[in-house]
Amino acid sequence: MPDASGRSGSAAGCRGRRRAPAGDHGTSLRLPIMLVAAAVCPCPPLLVPEVAAGAAPELDAARAACADAVGLLAAARPDLLVVVGPSDGDGGGAYPPGSAGTFRGFGVDTAVRLGHGRGGDRGLPPPLAVAAWLLEHAHWAACPVEGLAVTDAHTADDCAGAGRTVAGRAERVALLVMGDGSACRTLKAPGYLDERAAGFDREAARALGAADTGALAALDEGLARELKAAGRAPWQVLAGAAEGRGLAGRLLFEDAPYGVGYMVAAWS
User: Fold this and answer.
1) Beta pairing class for 262-267 and 249-255
2) How large is the angle between the packed helices 197-210 and 232-242, nearest 10 degrees?
3) What is the pLDDT of residues 154-189, one digit of tens each?
């Protein structure tokens, strides 16, 4: 599976890596892969006030929690920020710095860019565009930003491998992970009511708040698909990137407006 540089394999994207001083019979060793922080945010376009219009105040608490989580990323002094989010099959893959997105499909002419750079030929999928809006709103300038979109077709193993590769992209990597919980919490939810949805979201929120990589990796792919939980694959990329890092987590927000599970968490 491609990493955020668009290349495959563990040798992709060696930016930020250094060789250890010569010694031990002349062998050069790489410094350990380092994920230093992560923020987890939901990805509804309604987070963008221009899209939400009159309903914007309903998500004020979620926006504030997302702003707090993004602020903690900058405090970790990363060399590279990788934004990970869900997409359909056509939108999966890497997005270089400066990739552009828009919310015209949601009725507003708001445009965003993922950090600074030349971008690429593809527009950002909506979850990465929401992330770009969050970063612009936070005046992000701490380090370069790249994007990686993963699809529902990617298995837990695929996602874990992608996470490990992303974590090796620089000496100090941070992740902004976009994804929603189930979309089946109420009768009016996009996926209608499913009695299993509350339990799925409860376990996902617990795992995100505890930085429990094992529990995130074990989320059931089939159940997540049935519950329309778009965050499953991005969360499992995070689990792969953070495996063995010993990060601590905090759950900053949990609610289900519109019948969709929204969680915000910070890992450091």
Assistant:
1) antiparallel
2) 20
3) 999 999 999 999 999 999 999 999 999 999 999 999
Tell me the β-bridge partners of 264: 253
79-112: pLDDT as tens digits: 999 999 999 888 899 999 999 999 999 999 999 9
Q: ∠127-259-105 over CA atoms, to 5°?
A: 35
Query: Who contacts 13 (Cβ-Cβ below 8 Å, separation ≥6)?
Result: 3, 4, 5, 7, 165, 168, 169
Beta strands 35-41 and 80-86 are unpaired
Neighbours of 15 (CB within 10 A): 14
Q: How confident is the model at residue 56 (pLDDT cuts 50, 70, 90)?
A: confident
